[in-house]
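#dry-run=false #mode=assembly
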Amino acid sequence: MTLSSRALAPEHSLPPMIRLLGKLVGGTTRTQIRRASQAYLFLLPWLIGLLFFWVGPIIASFYFSFSEYDVLSSPRWVGLQNYQKAFAGDQLFWPSLWRTFQYSFAVVPIGLAGSLCLAILLNRGLPGTNLFRTMFFVPHLVPAVATAMVWKWLLNPSLGPINLGLETIGLEGPGWLTRKEWALPSIIMMNLWGSFGGNQMLIFLAALQGVPQSLTEAAEIDGAGIWARFRHITMPMISPTILFNLILGVIGALKVFTSAHAATQGGPQYATWFIALHIYRHAFMYFQMGYGSALAWVFAVILLILTWVQMTWSNRWVYYAGE
Amino acid sequence: MALNESVRPPVGQMVYRRPLQKRPINVLFYAVMVILALAFLFPIVWAVTTSLKRPPELLVFPPRLLPAVPQWVNYATVFERVPFLMWAKNTVSVVLLGTLGQVLSASLAAYAFARFEFKGRNLLFLVTLGTMMLPEQVTLIPQFVLFHKLGWIDTLKPLWVPAWFGGGAFAIFLMRQFLMQLPRELDEAAIIDGAGAMRIYWQLLMPLCKPVLATLAVIGLIGRWNDYFGPLIYLSSDKRLTLAVGLTFFSKIPEGGMPVEHLMMASATMMTLPLILLFFAAQRYFVQGIAMTGLKG
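#status=ok
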């Protein structure tokens, strides 16, 4: 039993090197120190990743945002010039930001409501539900770039089936992606198609299944109608899930890039020019890494504020059953 | 008597409550679901039938759903016009290497967080979660500079190598949550039997983690398969592209007025098909796993 007695030995009997290691990784006995060092060994890939792909880049990006940098020559300090340009000199920056918000204001609530409705339908537990769930989910599996290509074709003003359908019911279809006024709604539509039945719906479905049936049944006996049961039992019970989907939905919507880049290249006349496209153009087409970083930071701060607001506001409407 | 809510069905599996008790309203629900399902599937059906049309048929007005004679040759034409096979190979390499690295390194990190006591654990875990809050645009530019300095631009490396370094906060978080649910007595029994930490990880815990590993793998595979932004900024030569970026090729080449939508739809179909097959194969795990992300959030 030498091993265990050694393992239980107090700190002062350990060799100084081991004791130093213990100070670093945490632990006072030989076993504790060994376990803690092993933990750091297992964490090593992630620590390296954290350093090289997160902490380092965050510091670098912050520094770049105050400099002029084209990757080939070294960064040149320019102070606040990039931020001044973003706030005052860039004709496209604020409109692109505003457009991204317009897009999110449409996609997030409609997407949430749609996914919730689908989840409620599926939660009825009718036979064949699994098949319907799969059919609703399939659009989400279509790669965003393929979705863009397919919808571009569906929305073709003269040859597409959507305008044909509108025509048969007596409406004149618009020019969709080719028209300045219609391009943004078109992008919204194609992305909603891909998101209604996707992950959000599955998450809602799981939450709905977690609502205790005894509660709804008790309310039903007390004479509560469908709407009252939904409003006063289901909604509060799934409100943490709504918050979760809302936050992820907002982050996802503000990042919108692929559909616009693949379907319209941000056009026509910048009608689908989102903030992510703007950053992409400056950083990776013009190689203005400094200005691109400044734009990214402005965007990041806005996003963080928005997430914080949502979290604070959620105290008013999210109910945690466990607390 | 056991309470009703304590017998909860496994997430993702449907329970058939009150079957067809309220017949009329259920008929209505069915009708709504059928209409919705058709609406959801219509774009896919249209894309597939377009992929089988002859070019003149694409210009017919009003457009018809079905081609006169299905042109399966369109699919072969895609391979002649663009290096589709090469793109597929590139995509598969990125997807497999990236996902493997992500699952392995994330599970190692999660093992450390879930099963070990060490200094700075809570802080590191908080930092890990914090990385999810920051938009990727911030880290993207310096990462690009880093890969540029390493000479990795226009190679596949930037797309999969980072995955081997932790696999991202979300994967670590999900794995950790799952590991925390497994009883610690398992580890302790194995330690008494003389198993080392590595053996406990590899031979005891990982086999028990199969559901969450499968979930992570499927999410990772789909995400990498669909990734458009990464390949767009890192790859430039035609032969090095992945399918996601290659797919836009047809929208760029003018073919003397002849439409190429049939080839585009054929490529889109071929790019989507593996995902749909994967989804059907792993549906159970996948649906469960996605649901898990929401419940534990």
